[in-house]
Amino acid sequence: MSNYLKRCVDLDTGANEPLRGMYMRSFAYPSLKDRIPIILTALIDHLSREKESIAQRYGEGAREELKIVIGSISKLKSELQTNKPLTKIESGGEGAEHYNHLIDEKTKLNGEEPTWFYSEWLFAECYLYRRLRETFETTKHLQNYDMFEYQKTSVYHNSIISIREATKLTLDCLEKLPTLSEVGLKKMVIDFLKLSLWSNRADLSLSGGAVTEQESICTHLVELDKFILVDDTEKVYHALTEIPVNGQPKILDIVLDNAGFELYFDLCLADFLLSAKIVTHVRFHPKNYPWFVSDTTTHDFYWMISTTKDNKDPNLRKIGTRWQKYVDEGKFSVETDEFWTLSSDFDKMKTECPTLYNKLGESTLVIIKGDLNYRKLMADLNRPYTTPFSVALGSFHPNKLVSLRTMKCDIASGLLPGQAEKCAAISPKWLISGEYATIQFDEPSSA
């Protein structure tokens, strides 16, 4: 082993410890060693290959800046691969103080500067994407350039067959709404929740940035049920359909994960719940800037609706027009917050960002999408997999909430005794492959 990684050990993560790259049997180690360098290499190649088109779009000054940007990303990749100490974010900007404070805090606590593999994986990985953001925000012409936009839009276009299928299903269900029984409505709500869940398999960070066509999930929901290890959809439906107090608006919060394919299914879910008058307003929470390759930004959200509305396919045009109308009427709104791009786990939201915590408390339900958000819900700790979900959330109980997550890292909670062992016997990589999933509900004890 390289001397840079001499303290890495061929062990699993210790019990109740945060995932770290130094534990070679954890998913953190291959992610830092192999997956993230592949992402950075692909980014460098893309910027080198597309420098002419980028210069045309952002101005001639961007051409020279690209050389500096590519050099900075190459340097970042080298720092990661040689496990160098993490350096301060010098650009100021959103989140810089958070990361710089933690670097100081870890240095003081451990008596040495934090490094990539020996730090908590969640912190190191979030720090990496904040450093990438710094690379672009210190330029004059490329401050608003999304380095991952081409991959996110490719996922949408490459999965258009599945997207058309989802669109037809959604429009068909909307037509049936007026004649649905209570049983029929419940089934459709649960089906749309599961479509939103399984769309989370489309993750460019997990794939190392590789864009692949997403398979149909609309016709496979029943057979996919056996891969849902915790299914709290009954509780979610009950939370959604409770009568609001004093006729207050019924807000739904969706903390978004991936753009492209997954976002499309999130919008279908939101449309159905609005059309069924189960909720009256949906607030979407994207990232403020490019994050973990495929995470949704505000631009991605509006791009999705605009592109769908202008599609040649009449069904896509129809649903895209519906979504644009929701935006225009204020029934769809987008709300950003610095917290989503900090390395803080959600347990810290109440103290670090009380305004956001209280805002999430206003709604009927908070839907939290994806694996990174799940890691933040769990504080990225290697707890026993049978740890109750509500316990693993720590102090994060702002409201009734549900996590929709396909499993892509070695963190889990709320499983039954023996369930993990059974999955491992069937599929050794069950924790990280995206093959299995959980739908986990929580509500404050006072509710």
Structure description:
The chain is of the alpha/beta class and 447 residues long. The chain has 2 domains: 3-137, Transcription Elongation Factor S-II, Chain A, CATH 1.20.930.60; 149-442, Uncharacterised protein PF01937, DUF89, domain 3 (Rossmann fold). The protein contains 18 helices and 7 strands. A 7-stranded mixed sheet has the order 1-7-6-5-2-3-4, sandwiched between helices. Strand 2, helix 11 (261-275) and strand 3 (281-285) form a beta-alpha-beta unit. Helix 2 crosses helix 3. It starts with 27 loop residues before the first helix and ends in a 5-residue tail after the last strand. 47% of the residues are buried.
**Terminal Cα separation, in Å?**
53 Å
Name the CATH superfamily assignment of the largest domain: Uncharacterised protein PF01937, DUF89, domain 3
* Individual helix count: 18
CATH class of the largest domain: Alpha Beta
Q: Which structural class matches the secondary elements?
A: alpha/beta
What string gives the helices and strands in order? HHHHHHHHHEHEHEHHEHHEHHEHE
- Mind telling me which CATH architecture of the largest domain this is? 3-Layer(aba) Sandwich
Contiguous runs where pLDDT drops below 50 for at least 5 residues:
205-209
Helix content bin? 40-55%
State the strand order across the main sheet: 1-7-6-5-2-3-4
What's the number of structural domains? 2
Oligomeric description of these chains: single chain
CATH overall fold name of the largest domain: Rossmann fold
Strand content: 5-15%
E-strand count: 7
Radius of gyration: 22 Å
Apparent shape: globular
* Residue-averaged pLDDT: 94
Task: Describe the main β-sheet briefly.
Answer: 7 strands, mixed
